[in-house]
Amino acid sequence: MRGPLKSILIIAATASVAGCGQNVLGSFYSEAGSVIDGGDFGNTTMNNTQIQSGQRSYAVSLAHRFEAEVPSTINFAFNSSTLDAEAQQVLNRQANWILQFPEIQFRVFGHTDLVGSDAYNRTLGLRRAQAAVRYLVGRGVNRSRLQAVSSLGETQPLIATPNPERRNRRTVTQVSGFVQNNPMVLNGKYAEVVYREYVDSATERSTLITVPSQAKAEE
User: Fold this and answer.
1) Domains present along the chain, CATH in parentheses
2) Keywords for this entry (predicted)?
3) Left if phi > 0, otherwise alpha if psi is -120 to 50, otherwise beta: which for 90?
4) CA 17 → CA 14, 35, 80, distances in Å?
């Protein structure tokens, strides 16, 4: 039994090494990029590979990133489209994020709770969305990038209740697509966005320190 078993193990090990060697040599002599990464080098590499190969939409990827990195929702008082301090803080964060990606368009949806008629709530939801858009524009976002202002009225409540509910009185900001004819549209080249952000983050911020002159120091 020992002889045959030992021979089988040697043959199996040799075949495994040979197969591994074939994969390595095949990857080495193949055209660059011919072997798609399956995720062995981390999520970032896999994400970039999938976008480059068309397996993932760049706009969808940014939409997920927007929702993960900044709050997409603000809330309102009853029967109001006025932005309170908390809503303004959220919109400030949204504006800062949006300004990093001048090639992306956004859409703002306005919602209400279930109190009042459908027609009135659609108008109120629209006013809330317009208030959010005006604030984002005031923070430096180009108005043309806010592609459309849509109101869903009372048709999509988060909490199903006929009573006043603050969580239903909201606007939601979402990525909607690319700015048409924008020279920075990347057509799936997500790595260029990463590189652009990397360069910006590595840029040294100079600080000027005023040193009083000898004469003033003695005075």
Assistant:
1) 58-183 (3.30.1330.60)
2) Cell outer membrane, Membrane
3) alpha
4) 5, 20, 70
